[in-house]
Amino acid sequence: MNKEHIKSAILIILIGMSVILSWSLYTYQPDIALLDVSSRYVSNELIGEERSLQEVIRPDQIVVHADGEKALIPRDREDFYALLEKVSQANYEADHVFMTEPYPLMTERGGIELVFPTSIPAEMFFAMLTLEDDYQTPISEIDRAFLYIHDVHDQVYMQFYSSDERRVGSLKSNISVGEFERLFIQNRDEYVTVRSLEEERAQSSLMTEHVYVTTEPMMVDTLSYGASPISIDLFRQSLFTDPSAVKYYQQSDGEDSYTDGNRMINLRHNGTFMEYGNPMFSEVQELSKHVAQAGYEFINGHGGWTDDYILTNWMRLNNREEVEFRLHMNGLPVFSIDGQDLMKLSATRSGNQIVAYSRPLFDLDSVPLNTTQRVELPSGEDVVRSLQQDDYYERQRIAKVSLGYEMEMRNPTFVTLEPHWYVLYGNRWQRIETSQVEAVSQGQTLDEEEEGAGDDDGLESN
């Protein structure tokens, strides 16, 4: 047999083997029943919802300015959300950016101011609007906006303002002037009268951020809600790369923990709260997006929006950044539960990596069990007056005064929400006891009230 015949024979054998192997692979069916079901990866299930920016970024005050007076649109009124819908659905054109234009710009026909609970990254703010062209602005963060009717152009304009950068920008909108006046400005008699703590300083400053407080006593509902637990298994599936590698163990304090050797979830307060940690080091130091955007996308990624959580704060802490979305019920923020400030979704970032995440592990019913009890609280003006009589407080450090709720969890399936006044002093919310405010409003000095109250100082920190 010559070499050519040998080569042909080898080639025929190889072709035959290839055909046999290909047919075997094509027709192979594994015996699925023999596999361990518990070892297979289960696809992620959304914990709650994914939400748009408009649903998690909202002002905590909407103030109507007209005829030298100011009125607050309550957050439980339809007008509050109708205005936000008008703003988000309108079209806008770029106008200009000033460093000297007055803010808010008062005109003869008035305007409406939106006061956000924290500064909003400009890219997130403009992502909520419809702009005709790509808009570039030197302002990086926005914490206020003012809609007004331009006296000359007879058109609704929007000022956006950064109190940190002391800059004002302007946009033209296609919001109907007539509808704007009729729906919001002309209804101001139905709203709550407010005044500014900064009116004296405003007379000598072109750009002033006002702290608005109510001038009338407030009637607020005490609420009760049913609560449903959120399964920790949903977070095991969402926050760990390989859920099958996650191990359970019990800590010395009796609380449960889950870890894959790197990431960890610790349960707190009898399993009603969780703390997630991911200490993996990120080599990337150049930040690709703002921490507020990163936190929003992280929570959206696992459908972590359960109740009504609103962007309320973000901060830089050395080489870390933190963002928080606070629970709101009946239009008001919930500042604490059983005396601890835990009613928020908090995400911490190092580099471009979310390294910590904490949140409640229960979901409140959409409808309260009762709203029969109403509580009368002092006016914001009386609250501020009582603070001014307390030597502890410096007026320039009073950042905000707000109505809010204290939550009490009587059992894992039932909570109550009791309204109080709170003051943001520096960077910390503190509850103000009504008895202290009432004593001052009746002409009693703070020292006299404290003598009658014993050791109670009238304040509770959160």
Describe the structure.
It holds the Pfam family YycH. It comes from Halalkalibacter hemicellulosilyticusJCM 9152. This is YycH protein. 23% of the residues lie in helices and 38% in strands. It has 11 helices and 26 strands. The strands form 2 sheets. It has a 16-stranded mixed beta sheet that branches. A 10-stranded mixed beta sheet has the order 5-3-8-7-6-4-1-2-9-10. The protein is globular.
Radius of gyration: 29 Å
* Low-confidence runs: 25-43, 200-204, 445-459
Number of structural domains: 3
- The percentage helix is 10-25%
Please outline the major beta sheet. 16 strands, mixed
Which structural class is indicated by helix and strand composition?
alpha+beta
Protein name: YycH protein
Region (Disordered): 440-462
Biased composition (Acidic residues): 446-462
Transmembrane segments: 9-28
Topology:
Blueprint: H1 3-27, H2 53-56, E1 61-66, E2 69-72, H3 78-89, E3 91-98, E4 111-121, H4 122-127, E5 130-131, E6 141-149, E7 156-162, E8 167-173, H5 177-185, E9 192-196, H6 199-202, E10 212-214, E11 218-229, H7 232-239, E12 247-250, E13 256-259, E14 264-268, E15 273-277, H8 291-301, E16 309-317, E17 320-329, E18 332-337, E19 344-350, E20 353-360, E21 362-364, E22 370-377, H9 380-388, E23 398-411, E24 414-425, E25 428-432, H10 434-441, H11 446-453, E26 459-461
Helix pairs in contact: 9-10
Transmembrane segments: 9-28
Pfam families: YycH
Domain Regulatory protein YycH: 4-441
